[in-house]
Amino acid sequence: MKKYGYARVSTTDQDLTVQIEALAPFTDMIREEKQSGTSLKNRSELRIILDFIQEGDVLVVTRIDRLARSVADLSAIVKELMDKGASLEVTEQNIDTNTATGKAFLQMLGVFAEFETNIRRERQLEGIAKAKQEGKYRGRKKSIDREAIKKLQQAGKGPAAIAKELGVARSSVYRLLEEQTG
């Protein structure tokens, strides 16, 4: 039996140290990543654990929100573990999916994690709407040099060549050229 620790934070400026220190006494090895937990996409370290975990092994996380932010993702991860004969332990919330109580508690916490994510998203959208109303929100800064596109087009280059030269999507070049011609 092996115990695999998994530590995750959402952004590159966040620190994993607290999670790693908390997992170390309970695990044989720890995989870590800095990636959003709202989706299973791009979570290569978690994928490695799920690919290699075997019967009798345990995936250990400090809190359920470090593993998943939606009930669907949490259920998919737990199902994959169970199908392989492995289990999940959550150290801070004292959950062990080898027990019926642990499974039930895990599902309840998953619902709350998803609820928290949805509330945060709603607040963010409300804040953006208010800032737009007050004229304080202008969106993100333009990342494509419109003048460079114009100059390259005037030099006789087509949208595909412009996109390649500037390292941007061809669809963005078409959109900006269309805006310029009005």
From TrEMBL:
Residues 2-135 form the Resolvase/invertase-type recombinase catalytic domain. PROSITE patterns: RECOMBINASES_1, RECOMBINASES_2, RECOMBINASES_3. CDD domains: SR_ResInv (cd03768). GO terms for biological process: DNA integration. Gene3D superfamilies: Homeodomain-like, Resolvase, N-terminal catalytic domain. One of its GO terms (molecular function) is DNA binding. The keyword DNA-binding applies. InterPro entries: Homeodomain-like_sf, Recombinase_CS, Resolv_N, Resolvase-like_N_sf, Resolvase_HTH_dom, SSR_resolvase. Keywords: DNA integration, DNA invertase, DNA recombination, DNA-binding. The active site is at 10 (o-(5'-phospho-dna)-serine intermediate). Belongs to the site-specific recombinase resolvase family. This is Site-specific DNA recombinase. The lineage of its organism: Bacteria, Pseudomonadati, Pseudomonadota, Alphaproteobacteria, Hyphomicrobiales.
